[in-house]
Amino acid sequence: MDIAIHGSFLPQTDPDAALAFYRDLLGFEVRNDVGYDGMRWITVGPPGQPVSIVLHPPAVDPGITEDERRVIGEMMAKGTYAGILFSSDDLDGLFKHLQESGAEVIQEPTDQPYGLRDGAVRDPSGNLIRIQQRV
């Protein structure tokens, strides 16, 4: 079998802030931007790579209850609902760029005992983004 990761989903609470972060700050290209009923689903991805991230409105699935919507909102606000892992060949340079741009840094780049150097930031919706670099 030949299986590849095509995409992933991350919730976003502010489409314009999500675009400013993923497109303008991280340099991802916008591959799709679809509006429906006052909401937006934005697909972004790193240039030259086939994998995409769909930034979607949270808790709009028809089977989600109001209590579940509330919990999802609370978890997003704390940064515990969703996350993604990126890699970079220049972790320190990337974190310097993120800090200068005002991104919320959760963990400065740190050498880990399992052979990676990594750090963490949050996007404007609170999603945890871990970024690693092999040492």
TrEMBL record:
It comes from the Bacteria. Residues 4-134 form the VOC domain. It holds the Pfam family Glyoxalase. PANTHER family: GLYOXALASE/BLEOMYCIN RESISTANCE PROTEIN/DIOXYGENASE (PTHR36437), GLYOXALASE_BLEOMYCIN RESISTANCE PROTEIN_DIOXYGENASE (PTHR36437:SF2). This is Glyoxalase superfamily protein PhnB. It comes from Amycolatopsis roodepoortensis.
